Amino acid sequence: MSKLEIKNLHVSVNTDQGPKQILRGVDLTISSGETHAVMGPNGSGKSTLAYSVAGHPKYEITDGEILLDGENVLEMSVDERARAGLFLAMQYPVEVPGVSVSNFLRTAKTAISGEAPALREWVGDLKTAMKNLRMDSDFTERNVNEGFSGGEKKRHEILQLELLKPRIAILDETDSGLDVDALKIVSEGVNRAKANTDLGVLLITHYTRILRYIQPDFVHVFVAGKVAEQGGPELAERLEAEGYDRYLKASA
Amino acid sequence: MAQHGIQEHSHGAGVPIQTRNERPRSTSIEDFAEVSKLQEIWRYLPIDKLKGLTQSVIGEISEDSVEIKLAEGVTASWVETTKAKVGSAGLPEDRIAAIAWTNASKTLVIDVPKELEQSQPSFVVIKPNSDAATAAHVLINVGTHAKTTIVLDHAGLGVLGENVEIVLGDESTLNFVTIQDWDKGSTHVSTQFAKLGRNSNLRHTVVSLGGDLVRVTPAVELSSPGAEINMYGVYLAESGNYFEHRPYVDHIAENCKSNVAYKGALQGVGAHTVWVGDVLIRETAVGTDSYELNRNLLLTAGARADSVPNLEIETGKIEGAGHASASGRFDDEQLFYLQARGLNETEAKKLVVRGFLSEIIQKIEIDEIEQRLIGAIELELEKVGV
Predict the structure, then answer these.
(1) How many domains does one find in chain B?
(2) Choosing among A51, A87, A94, A157, which should be mutated to test the B contact, i.e. which has the most B CBs within 10 A?
(3) What ipTM does the predicted assembly reach?
């Protein structure tokens, strides 16, 4: 049983015009087995939340705290957070030229578990996970994210999610740029990880479409750097019908 | 990154045309001016690190300082330079090469007999173990239809002025690797010439890992039709290293192919690399296909990479000609991505550097050299606590 607690989180980024406040007091708690959808209009700070939890150096935490099972996440380096069980599925995964997917996945698995995986078992797990995500076996010979289509990049992120078995995963707009078939495949992957490892999920999305395939337990509406409203799955349905206008008017 | 297709250079009337081809060629020292930063060829060089190599009279490499391990069928002999067929691949274009040429009374001649196909590599290791300026001359002759691999390795302490000639017979294939893995305090100026026979194929790889000053200038003459040259380079420079590589491809005959790709990683204050890639496609070189590329990865602040691709084209009847050059800092987003997957900073950097250089490393196709390079990368990145 794991718990990620985000308390009163204030985050700013440095811009040419000086520091810009993006998150203004976010409170969220995600426990194992739960799926939280964070929805909101562009620029509301959803991705900032994701990258701040993962520890991207661009974001400065000016107030608040993040705890994973009581441990202070903000004192951990990016890799320590990953080894502690946090995973961020990126919206724009970067290319790593000359590094094959197979080498990358094995290196990451070794780093996360602290020892190299037994070869036979690893090869089997990899094969199964790739088959489930309808990925060709020659995919592992390609260089990480190099020349990947949008759908391939997202499937590769979810492949990592399934293989690295984190405790809490943040999915940053994993649904963006996917056609409906790819969306179903990716969603199945997330649901499998939930079923197999009791994963806690923070699902960041602009649209309600993915919530038809990944059932949220909680929905949080993000506006201007904080949670404007929260509720159950019914809140997503309301957003589907009404959009974000209601919140934007209120905050303006 | 600059990436161009065919580029024709035009000059106004009355302007002297300065092509790569107009440099004087001679074995006489006095035909060349003293080494000075005012000349383009020395402009980047820390001249004080040349040590004795600019003196007209220098010593000569002793046979004991050269270890030779040849594959079966390949032979080696020390021949009076005046008697060896030296100069068959090219003549010096600068004073230091002329000094080395004049002071090497003996030439190490490596012969690969015609039609010999030998997959085992041959090794020549030069270890002067002295900081006295020394000259060396190596001539590699590959006979018609022969095919093999030769590694010329330089290690230990040395101040070496060297000329290396490579002559490929018709239809022959040579995988040649020159390694500069010198100790601190070493200086090495290596002028290399290659002349390729009809339909022959040379892979020329430069690996520079250590030395206060290392300058390798491989010049390739494509004067017989159908010849193909691949020139690769991989280098790791840290504080105290100055590495300069100036590959030159001279396209003279029809339907020849050239591909030049050098990649380097630099770290530490004062680490400096220079790459000047010259490609000349003469009027006669119809059907030429040519490309040159240099990429540098700067791992820390304080390192400097100069990269200058030069392309001269005198005919429009070619298949292709292009160049690319880019030098950049470590990509923070790459590091973040890998660290977010649990790799610590050093592991992440190692993976990125290995990946960056792998394209070239894989081309060497000699297992022990590849392993040595990967080892050098690991060691390099452990050092500075990057």
Answers:
(1) 1
(2) A94
(3) 0.96
Is B352 contained in some domain? Answer: no
User: Which of A73, A86, A90, A96 to mutate: most B Cβ within 10 Å?
Assistant: A96
Cβ neighbour number for residue B146 with a 10 Å cutoff: 24
What single-letter DSSP state applies at residue B33? Answer: P
Average pLDDT taken over every residue of chain B: 92
| Residue B350, SS3 per DSSP | helix
- The CB density around residue B357, as the number of other CB atoms within 10 Å, is 22
> Which pair of tokens denotes residue B35?
């080494």
Contact between chains at B355 and A97 (C-beta distance less than 8 A): yes
**Partner-chain contact A79 B344, CB within 8 Å:** yes
Q: Is residue B33 part of a domain?
A: yes
- Has residue B7 got a pLDDT over 60? no
Closest partner CB to B341 (pick from A55, A97, A111): A111
Looking at the domain assignment, is residue B280 inside a domain?
A: yes
CA distance B236 to B265: 5
Give pLDDT, residue B83.
81
Residues of A in contact with B340 (CB under 8 A): 54-55, 78-79, 81-82, 87-88, 90
Q: Which domains does chain A have, with CATH numbers?
A: 3-251 (3.40.50.300)
Question: B300: distance to nearest CA of chain A, Å?
Answer: 17
- On chain A, the residues whose CB falls within 8 A of the CB of B339 are 55, 77-79, 82
Residue B385 has pLDDT above 60, yes or no: no
Confidence of residue B15 (pLDDT cuts 50, 70, 90): very low
User: What average pLDDT does range B242-256 have in this prediction?
Assistant: 98
Task: Check if the beta carbon of residue A157 is closer than 8 Å to that of residue A172.
Answer: no
Percentage of residues in chain B having pLDDT higher than 70: 95
Nearest CA in chain A to B344: A79
**Could you give the CA distance from residue A45 to residue A222 in angstroms, rounded to a whole number?**
7
Q: Which residues of A touch B333 (CB under 8 A)?
A: 94
**Å from A8 to nearest chain B CA?**
24
B339 → closest Cβ in A82, A87, A98:
A82
Per-residue pLDDT tens digits for B45-63: 999 999 999 999 999 999 9
- The pLDDT confidence band at residue A247, using thresholds 50, 70 and 90, is confident
pTM above 0.95, yes or no: no
Point out the residue among A81, A87, A111 whose CB comes nearest to the CB of B347: A111
CA distance A172 to chain B (A): 14
Task: Please judge whether B340 and A111 are an interchain contact, meaning their C-beta atoms are less than 8 angstroms apart.
Answer: no
Q: Where are the alpha helices (DSSP H) in chain A?
A: 46-54, 78-84, 101-113, 119-132, 150-164, 180-197, 233-242, 245-251
Q: Report if residue B385 sits inside a domain.
A: no
B355 touches chain A (CB under 8 A): yes
With b for 16 or more beta-carbon neighbours within 10 A and e for fewer, the A60-82 pattern comes to ebeebebebeeeebeebebbbbb
B229: how many CB neighbours lie within 10 A of its CB?
25
pLDDT value for B207: 97
